[in-house]
Design brief:
Helix content: 10-25%
Radius of gyration: 18 Å
Bound molecules: zinc ion
Shape: globular
Oligomer: single chain
Number of strands: 14
Distance between the termini: 9 Å
Order of helices and strands: EEHHEEHEHEHHEEEEEHHEEE
Largest sheet: 7 strands, mixed
Number of helices: 8
Strand content: 25-35%
């Protein structure tokens, strides 16, 4: 299916961008661009073909990634599970692509938000991948499994509660399968962790390389293509705005200099593109896909 599975290669690694479905968010302007000056935001939206007054909803894909390195079968993020009416499609999309779920040996969680860890568990609250090794940044695990302070977030209280409950319900059951990292270590050969705090305290990007080709998995460092152009505009769910802006600038600069292929979890499917320097910021250039 055109907007659910997309195969590509990074050197000798076989990769699959795979959708867990989509989720529709109300009030996209304050949600995505919490601090954007009104006039400039409106001009930018118009330049992207969006009528600010009429923009009542924003539908985002949830894009996970499978990497077959030849030695390891790695899954990056597990989607949202039963969060919304159109989420939780990861497993069926993997199967449709011929991937045997039990062969996935490593699962990397970029951060603890519901759309990234919601598929960790099955309908009974048990690990959905009982034989895999899970990997997460230590600060991220510590944050969600202690008493997370979400006071600064400009979102409804019931959504804050949902974030915490969802994280606990999907993290604690995989505790026995978990490796926590606190260094930019190589998780499996060719896949290196990159510390990218801001969106959450232990948000992790990945630098994937094979035979001289690069893929930078930036997860939620950027949530909308406009964040690439306007890296100072943070989202209501970005826990530390200052850190998120620094992290974004560092990642986008790296992507542009290295001419790396970039995968972003929330950008239009398949979420793959390149980043080019433009003025004070950068520009998102999605790859050309056929079909
Ligand atoms: Zn997300």
């Amino acid at each position: 299916m055109g907007n659910e599975r997309y195969r590509f290669k990074v050197g000798s690694f076989e990769c699959l961008a795979v959708s867990d479905g989509t989720f529709t968010y109300p009030h996209p302007i304050p949600f995505l661009f919490a601090n954007a000056p009104k006039e400039r935001l409106e001009q930018t939206l118009l330049a992207h073909g969006i009528q600010p007054e009429q923009w009542a909803e924003w539908t985002s894909p949830y894009i996970c990634l499978v990497i077959d390195t030849g030695k390891h079968l790695v899954l990056v993020d597990t989607g949202a599970g039963g969060l919304g009416p159109n989420t939780g499609k990861l497993l069926q999309n993997l199967k449709a692509d011929g991937i045997a779920i039990e062969n996935i040996d490593t699962i990397i969680l970029t951060h603890g938000h519901p759309d990234h860890v919601g598929g960790n568990t099955d309908g009974e609250g048990k690990s959905a991948f009982p034989h895999a090794r899970f990997v997460m940044w230590k600060d991220e695990w510590d944050f969600w499994t202690s008493e997370p302070n979400l006071a600064e977030l400009k979102i409804d209280e019931h959504i804050k509660e949902l974030l915490v409950t969802f994280a606990r319900n999907n993290l604690l059951p995989i505790q026995g399968q978990l490796d926590l990292i606190d260094k930019e270590t190589e998780i499996v050969p060719g896949i290196r962790a990159v510390s990218t705090p801001g969106h959450t305290p232990g948000h992790m990007a990945l630098a994937i390389s094979s035979m001289g080709q690069q893929l930078l998995v930036i997860s939620d460092a950027v949530i909308h293509p406009i964040h690439v152009e306007q890296p100072d505009w943070y989202a209501a769910v970005d826990l530390s705005p200052e850190q998120v802006v620094n992290t974004r600038r560092r990642l986008l600069n790296r992507a542009a200099i290295e001419k790396a292929l970039v995968l972003a979890f929330h950008l239009p499917f398949p979420g793959l593109g390149q980043v080019a320097q433009k003025g004070e910021g950068w520009q998102w250039r999605p790859i050309e896909t056929t079909g």
